[in-house]
Amino acid sequence: MDVVMSSLLCGVLQILYIPTVLGNGCLSSRGSCCILCNPGYFLPRECGPCRPCPVTGYTDKPNNQPYCDHCRRCEGIFSYKEKCTSTRNAVCTCIPGKKCTNEKCTQCRNDRCLAGQQLVGSKCVTCPLGTFNTGAESICTPWKNCSALGGIISINGTHTSNVVCGEFFTKATKSPGPSSEVNTTTDTRQVLVPSPGESHLQIIYIVASCAVSLLFIAICVACRWKLTEKIKHVCQEIPKPIVKQTEEEDGCSCHFPEEENGGENEPMTLEA
Fold this sequence. Notes:
The chain has helices at residues 2-22, 196-237, 247-254, 258-261, and strands at residues 26-30, 33-37, 41-42, 51-52, 57-58, 69-70, 78-82, 91-94, 98-100, 108-110, 117-120, 123-126, 131-132, 141-142, 153-155, 164-165, 167-176, 182-193. With 272 residues, it is of the alpha+beta class. β15 (153-155) and β16 (164-165) form a beta hairpin. The termini are far apart.
């Protein structure tokens, strides 16, 4: 009887002793010897209790290895996405401005290029014509289509800036419907408002046109005055015609006919 009681007591003590010696990290044991440890533990000897991994190590699956794997350190161009635990390795990511090149993020590349460029593969290239990038995005964006919006281009686009369209607005009007009621409609005509730059250009154009017109008028007036003076000068230099009387006109104009005079050689006689 005493022998039976002693055997039962030893069995109970052994059952209570095994978990204490082996610890919670043991997954499989042979008697009081653990042969396989849970994740987060390692087996320092072939037979013995499992021990937890240190802060700098981990095991992510059941094992009987005599050490824990070293945790990955995220330094330099890498930063921690998830920190290391006893059952999981650290997860790294690239610092801002860079991008992982693979799923495990073992390498980084430039995520953003300079303004006016975009990332193609691992190189930065200039934005194609008709696109721009201010540097805030990783790819170039097409310019705004002003004609599709009902406007006109006010400022042309560049590799680093978008196109600026002329401002427009819609005006709501009321139009009578077919019945006696008044229906409200919207006038979708877009009125373009010139930008300050366009207003200045228009003013400069008007002033320049007026100046050219005044200059042309002044030139015409000066040419006409000069031509008039030249005509007067030429007219003054032309001599007036001199009228000369011929001998026949002198003889005929101052004497009577010979019949009336009685001839030049006949002496005049007096009748008694």
